[in-house]
Specification:
Elements: H1 2-5, H2 9-17, H3 27-34, H4 46-57, H5 61-68, H6 72-80, H7 87-97
Helix pairs in contact: 4-6, 5-6
Length: 104
């Protein structure tokens, strides 16, 4: 498993024994390895949709902020539900978070 997700075997043991989480950059490989997303979020909210996108793409809040053209604090506040994005940023978010069609 460690080899398939690109981490040292000690990392897997550490996550299990110390009940810590892997770095978000490893999440996409874990999801692919397991065949499902073991990091559930409520996707009925904008906050949940942002968190799911970041999880599935292995993006930190900072990296997602760069993608959206905002600062990291904005992403943090959106995920907490403390603030709503401005309409201009809402349009950008909707485009980023829009489900992609699978090619056949």
């Amino acid at each position: 498993m460690a080899r398939r997700i690109g981490v040292a075997p000690d990392n897997i043991i550490y996550w299990r024994v110390h009940e810590t989480s892997p770095h978000i950059s490893v999440y996409p490989k874990i999801i692919a390895f397991l065949g499902y997303n073991p990091f559930p979020v409520d996707t009925s909210t904008l906050a949940g949709r942002i968190k799911r996108y970041r999880t599935e793409h292995g993006l930190s809040q900072e990296a997602f902020a760069i993608l959206c053209g905002v600062d990291e604090t904005s992403v943090r506040d959106w995920e907490r539900g403390d603030r709503k994005p401005l309409p201009s940023k809402q349009r950008i978010l909707e485009e980023i978070l829009k489900p992609k069609e699978l090619s056949q």
